[in-house]
């Protein structure tokens, strides 16, 4: 069977190449030193942090929010990442080519008010960045850039989840095998909070997001949130979308054209790291702030980079939420480790600053956790310029936030073992691909929970990297992180049997126990899975803010997925189906 699948993939690749759907031609080789020089030539903190345009996902009728339909397109255009860098060609979201931005517009929805969005593809016949047809990839027969949109953190029907197989090209000229509708429906029934939307096309997620297909999505409920008294309004409640990029001298976005093992994967490399740090589409921007409280919704939209964020003036972050949900009470943190696709909702009180400026800096090694330390470029994020407040700050951070359902691990009806593997080339020792439970995305679903239930997943990381685990639809929380002892023996057994129980995991997962940080003890959609550890997560397949069932049929086709959110890993192919059953 596998031979037939591989032959079919090969034929699809040949047909696609014959039809002109091939990666763009490589420019002259560029060295890391050259990329650093380009980034280093850009003066920091000269561009103001952009406020992304806002699109309301509802209309007001008789004083109440009502459902509407939106049409949002994907366009190719030019974007200025820095004052002194030539404009870059990007793929971006917008209601028109003229208004499209990097990141895309922030969609503001109302809790309990459904929103319908028709996503349209106006992208050209060929991609602006290289991609690799030797990893599982959407390759249309007649050319075009395949895309499909996933609302990250959303609770919505499977048909609106943005399946990797539901891709489509410009004008819906070609569609993937799971495509069913041009219009997605988002119930917005979940707790108020920040989400984000991005491309999710098979094998192209890393290239399409690097090109710019991402944007923020905020669900609000004034009746619930206003009594909390947190900073509010466009000036004091800001989304910060972090993303690293490298650039050629002509402003083009850099992505490698040569793979780590070219005779196996001509283009794929295990991680992309950029030299410049962009926030809301500007490299190292600044933001003028008053001496008062500000709320920042920080989203790491990088391909592979983790951020360990802190402020150089010593001000702490007061964390009020993580991913799409509030914490039950605020937690103060001197620094924040933000994995790929993870979100933290924080308050910073600049009235307590002893300085007139503060840099937001990054100390996370790359790859995380054992890679190289950040340099003078990717160790900087943005700067805050602090001035006296012009009006009284009436905001506050309350002692109590919002409550959700209890973790209740004892209610679990199923315990599953989820094992992360990295496979290496015998000749070079470099990675060739990554799997979960030794299986491909195309293999039948083995994770088949029932709606309304709780499960415990024991996630075992047998790779050298920390992986941000993301489950579509479900909400989950890490409860324990336990080190593996005699790890080599366990790995050897798993390589032969691929069965944690038969390999006596209970004897190995008895090492050092690492505490889950207080500000991560909430209901999340991304959890960090440390290498050499077994992380216990409690997964809820219902609405955690109310305890109620999903207000849609979560068992419908094409189902959901779960995956590592390092995009280069997800594309090759650390992703598995998640199929709810009745």
TrEMBL record:
<dbReference type="InterPro" id="IPR001117">
    <property type="entry name" value="Cu-oxidase_2nd"/>
</dbReference>
<feature type="domain" description="Plastocyanin-like">
    <location>
        <begin position="437"/>
        <end position="577"/>
    </location>
</feature>
<keyword id="KW-0472">Membrane</keyword>
<protein>
    <recommendedName>
        <fullName>Plastocyanin-like domain-containing protein</fullName>
    </recommendedName>
</protein>
<dbReference type="Pfam" id="PF00394">
    <property type="entry name" value="Cu-oxidase"/>
</dbReference>
<dbReference type="GO" id="GO:0016491">
    <property type="term" value="F:oxidoreductase activity"/>
</dbReference>
<feature type="domain" description="Plastocyanin-like">
    <location>
        <begin position="279"/>
        <end position="353"/>
    </location>
</feature>
<dbReference type="InterPro" id="IPR011706">
    <property type="entry name" value="Cu-oxidase_C"/>
</dbReference>
<comment type="similarity">
    <text>Belongs to the multicopper oxidase family.</text>
</comment>
<dbReference type="InterPro" id="IPR011707">
    <property type="entry name" value="Cu-oxidase-like_N"/>
</dbReference>
<comment type="function">
    <text>Multicopper oxidase that may play a role in the maintenance of inorganic phosphate homeostasis.</text>
</comment>
<dbReference type="InterPro" id="IPR052152">
    <property type="entry name" value="LPR1/LPR2"/>
</dbReference>
<keyword id="KW-0560">Oxidoreductase</keyword>
<keyword id="KW-0256">Endoplasmic reticulum</keyword>
<keyword id="KW-0186">Copper</keyword>
<dbReference type="InterPro" id="IPR008972">
    <property type="entry name" value="Cupredoxin"/>
</dbReference>
<feature type="domain" description="Plastocyanin-like">
    <location>
        <begin position="146"/>
        <end position="222"/>
    </location>
</feature>
<keyword id="KW-0732">Signal</keyword>
<keyword id="KW-0325">Glycoprotein</keyword>
<dbReference type="Pfam" id="PF07731">
    <property type="entry name" value="Cu-oxidase_2"/>
</dbReference>
<dbReference type="GO" id="GO:0016036">
    <property type="term" value="P:cellular response to phosphate starvation"/>
</dbReference>
<dbReference type="GO" id="GO:0005789">
    <property type="term" value="C:endoplasmic reticulum membrane"/>
</dbReference>
<dbReference type="GO" id="GO:0005507">
    <property type="term" value="F:copper ion binding"/>
</dbReference>
<keyword id="KW-0479">Metal-binding</keyword>
<feature type="signal peptide">
    <location>
        <begin position="1"/>
        <end position="20"/>
    </location>
</feature>
<dbReference type="InterPro" id="IPR002355">
    <property type="entry name" value="Cu_oxidase_Cu_BS"/>
</dbReference>
<dbReference type="Pfam" id="PF07732">
    <property type="entry name" value="Cu-oxidase_3"/>
</dbReference>
């Amino acid at each position: 069977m596998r031979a037939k699948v591989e032959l079919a993939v090969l034929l699809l690749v040949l047909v696609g190449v014959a039809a002109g759907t091939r990666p763009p031609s490589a420019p002259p080789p560029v060295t890391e030193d050259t990329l650093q020089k380009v980034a280093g030539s850009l003066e920091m903190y000269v561009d103001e942090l952009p406020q992304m345009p806002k699109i309301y996902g509802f209309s007001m009728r008789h004083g109440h929010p009502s459902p509407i339909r939106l049409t949002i397109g994907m366009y190719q255009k030019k974007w200025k990442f820095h004052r002194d860098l030539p404009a870059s060609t990007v793929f971006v979201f917008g209601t028109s080519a003229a208004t499209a931005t990097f990141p895309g517009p922030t969609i503001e929805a109302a809790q309990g008010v459904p929103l319908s969005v028709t996503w349209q593809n106006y992208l050209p016949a060929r991609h602006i960045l290289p991609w690799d047809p030797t990893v599982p990839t959407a390759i249309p027969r007649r050319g075009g850039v395949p895309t499909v949109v996933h609302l990250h953190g959303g609770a919505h029907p499977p048909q609106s989840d943005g399946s990797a197989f539901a891709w489509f090209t410009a004008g819906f000229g070609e569609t993937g095998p799971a495509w069913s509708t041009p219009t997605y429906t988002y119930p917005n029934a979940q707790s108020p909070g920040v989400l984000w939307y991005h491309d999710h096309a098979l094998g192209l997620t890393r290239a399409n997001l690097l090109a710019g297909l991402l944007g923020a999505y905020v669900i609000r409920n004034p009746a619930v949130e206003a009594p909390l008294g947190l900073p509010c309004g466009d000036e004091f409640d800001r989304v910060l979308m972090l993303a690293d990029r490298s650039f050629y001298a002509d402003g083009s976005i850099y992505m490698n054209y040569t793979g780590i093992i070219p005779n196996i994967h001509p283009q794929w490399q295990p991680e992309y790291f950029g030299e410049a740090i962009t926030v809301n589409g500007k490299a190292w921007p600044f933001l003028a702030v008053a001496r008062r409280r500000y709320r920042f919704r920080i989203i790491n939209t990088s391909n592979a980079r983790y951020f360990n964020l802190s402020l150089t003036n010593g001000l702490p972050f007061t964390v009020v939420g993580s991913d799409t949900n509030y914490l039950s009470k605020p937690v103060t943190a001197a620094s924040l480790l933000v994995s790929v696709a993870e979100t933290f909702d924080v308050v910073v009180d600049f009235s307590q600053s002893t300085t007139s400026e503060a840099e937001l800096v990054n100390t996370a090694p790359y790859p995380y956790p054992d890679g190289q330390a950040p340099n003078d470029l990717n160790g900087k994020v943005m700067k805050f310029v602090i001035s006296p407040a012009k009006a009284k700050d009436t905001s506050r951070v309350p002692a109590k936030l919002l409550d959700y359902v209890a973790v209740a691990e004892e209610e679990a009806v199923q315990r599953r073992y989820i094992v992360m593997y990295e496979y290496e080339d015998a000749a070079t020792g470099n990675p060739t691909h990554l799997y979960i439970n030794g299986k491909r995305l195309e293999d039948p679903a083995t994770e088949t929970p029932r709606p309304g239930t709780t499960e415990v997943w024991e996630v075992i990381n047998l790779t050298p990297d920390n992986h941000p685990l993301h489950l579509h639809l479900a909400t989950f929380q890490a409860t324990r992180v336990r080190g593996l002892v005699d790890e080599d023996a366990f790995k050897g057994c798993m390589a032969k049997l691929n069965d944690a129980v038969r390999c006596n995991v209970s004897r190995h997962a008895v090492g050092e126990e690492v505490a889950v940080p207080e500000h991560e003890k909430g209901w999340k959609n991304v959890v960090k899975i440390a290498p050499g550890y077994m992380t216990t997560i409690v997964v809820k397949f219902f609405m955690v803010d109310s305890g109620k069932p999903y207000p849609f049929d979560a068992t419908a086709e094409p189902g959901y997925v779960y995956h590592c959110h390092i995009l280069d890993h997800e594309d090759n192919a650390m992703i598995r189906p998640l199929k709810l059953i009745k």
